[in-house]
Amino acid sequence: MDYGHSIHVTNTSRSINLPHRDLLEDIQEYNKTCRPLMKASFMGDWQAAKAIIDERQELVVFSITANQETLLHLAASAENTKQTQEFLQNLVNMLEMNDLKLEDLSSWNAFQIAVANGSMEMVDIMLQKNQALLSIPNMKNGFTLSISAFFGHHDLTRHLYQLSEGTIDTYMTTTDLNSFVHRCIRSEMFDITLKLLTRFPYKMTHLTYMIILDELARRPDSLNRPKQNMIRKMVDPFLVKLHMKKGPSENDDPALNLLKKVLNICTTFKLDDQLRILKGPSNSQNNYKHPSGVLFVAVEMGNTAFLIELFQVYPHLLTARNVNDDSIFHVAVMHRHLGIYNLLYEIGKRRLLSTTHTNAQGNTILHVVAQSSKEIQPQTTSGASLLMQRELLWFQDVEKMLPRALRENKNDNGQTAYQIFFDDNKDLISNGLKWTKDCMVTTTLIVTVAFAVAFTVPGGYNQETGFPIFLHETGFLVFVIADAISLFSSSTSLLVFLSILTSRYGQRDFLHSLPRKLMLGLLTLFISVVAMMVTFAASFFVLYNNGLKWVPIVISILAAIPVMLFALLQLPVWSDMFRSTFDSRYLFNPRRRRMLYNKSRV
C-alpha cells in the first residue's frame, strides 16, 4: 500500500527489509492460511488468528499478501478499536524487536502504517516493544514524524516529537529536518514548527523560512484572533480574576509567536538573504517579481496581524509596489480588507505616498475603490441594498483620504472614479429595488387577510343584536386587538415599501435614507406576521373555550413556527442593516491603534 506522496529524504542504500514469502508460493497454503489471517486481523478476532498461529509460530513473520505484508501490517492498518488494539497487543507480545522492522514492497513497516492512520494507541503498543522504530525512515516518505505531519495528525505528531525531542538530530539530517518543518507548517502545526526553529534555527535553509512566511501569510484565521462581542469583553476580565478562566497567554498564539521567531531569525542574516526570503518561494503558483511576495500574499488574504509584524521589522515595505505598480493599500481596497486599510490612519506622512500614488493604469486609490469588489458580491437580492450601502461607505472614506485636486483625475481609459462607481453599481440598485417589490407582495397579502378577518369574526354575529356572539370573551378581545395590529402594521409596511418604489433614489440615498426606510418596513412586516399568527391562534381559543382545550394549544404552538422561521431568516438582514446604518462610523479610523503597540519579540 502506498501511503502518501514522497518528499526528499536522505538517500539510503539499504535494501527493503522484506519478510518471508513462503506462503505466497503455494496457492492452497495461501487460501488455507493467509485469507483467514487477513480476515481475523481486520475483524480483530484474536482467537481465530491464534488458532492458526499455534500450529506454526513462524507465520507471524511471513508475508500473507501480494504486497508482502505481514499479519502485523494488516493489524496496524485495521480500524482503531479496542478489539483491534487487543489483537495488536497480543501479536506484538509474540514478536521479537526486529520483527517490528519488517517492511512490505512499498518499504512501509507496520509502525509507519499505524502512524499514517493516526492510531496513537497502536503506535504506543509498538513503541513499548521497540523505541528504535522512530528512527527508521520510509525509503520514499521519510521518518515517522514527517509521515504523521503529512497526514495532519497534530496530537500524534506532538506526542512523537516529545518522545524523540532529545534524539531527533541524531538520526535526522539537515535535509530531513527541513522536510519535517515543511510538512508541519503546511499542516498548520505551528507549535511544533516553533519548537524546531527554536532548537535548530541555523539548520533551516532559506527556502524553509520562505515557505514558513508564505504559509503564515496565507492563513489570516490562524494569526488574527476573532473579535469578541461586547458581553464577552465585559465578562472575561472578571472570570480571569475569579480564576474561572485563564487569561490570554503567549501560548494561545503559536502562529503569531512563530512569525515573530522567523522574523527575528531573519534579521540576523545578510541583507541580501533577508530580501530573498521576503520575496517568497518561486514556483508556478507564486512567481512574484515585486520586492516582497509574502507581503502581497498577506495583503490579498487580508492578513492584518501578519502585516503588522512584518512592518515592525521592515517598515520600508509600507511603500512597496507590485507588478501592476499597486501599493499595498490599493490591493487592500481592491479586496475590501478593512483591517489593512485602517493602517493608513497610523502611518503618518507615509499615508500621502500611498493615497496619492497612481498605478500602471493611471488609477488612484479612489478609482480602485470605485470598482465593485468581486469578493463581496451579494448572494441574494436582499443583500444588494446592504452591499450598496457598504460600497458607499468605502467610497466616501477613501474620498476623504485623497486630496481634492486628485479626486477628479482620469485614468488611462479617460474615466473618473465617480464614473466608474456609477457604472459598476447599477446592478446593485436594480437588485435592491427588486427585493423591495418582493417584500411588497408579502405585505399586500397580509393586509388583505387582516382586513378580511376583521369582518369574519369567530362564531359569527348575533342575529338579533348584530353584535359578535363571543363579544365578552377574553379570547375575542385578543383576536380583535391582534387583527387590528396586524392590519395597521402591514399597511405601514406596504406604504413604506411603496414610497421606496415611487421615489427617485440616487446612489447616495443608499447610505442613510433608504436603509432606515427598509428597516422600518421590515420591522412592521415582522410585527404584522406575529400579530396575524396571534389572531389565528386566538380564534381557536374562542371557538374551543368550553371543550377540547388542547386543540387551540397545539395550534398556537404550530402557529409559532412560521414566526420563528421568519425571525431567523430576516433578523440577520435587519441587524446587518442596523449596524451598517448606525454603527458604520466605527468601521473606519478606529480608536485602537494596532501598529503602535509595544509588542514583545520572541
UniProtKB/TrEMBL annotation:
GO CC field? membrane
Q: Does the keyword Transmembrane apply?
A: yes
Lineage top rank: taxon:
Eukaryota
Q: Membrane-spanning residues where?
A: 439-457, 477-501, 522-544, 550-569
A Pfam family (short name) is PGG
Which Gene3D superfamilies would you find in this protein's record?
Ankyrin repeat-containing domain (1.25.40.20)
Which InterPro entries does this UniProt record tie to the protein?
Ankyrin_rpt, Ankyrin_rpt-contain_sf, PGG_dom
Task: Specify the PGG domain's residue ranges.
Answer: 435-542
Q: May I ask which residue range the UniProt record assigns to the signal sequence?
A: none
> Which keywords belong to this entry?
Membrane, Transmembrane, Transmembrane helix
UniProt xrefs under PANTHER family: CASKIN, PGG DOMAIN-CONTAINING PROTEIN
Please give the name of this protein: PGG domain-containing protein
Q: Species lineage, top-down?
A: Eukaryota, Viridiplantae, Streptophyta, Embryophyta, Tracheophyta
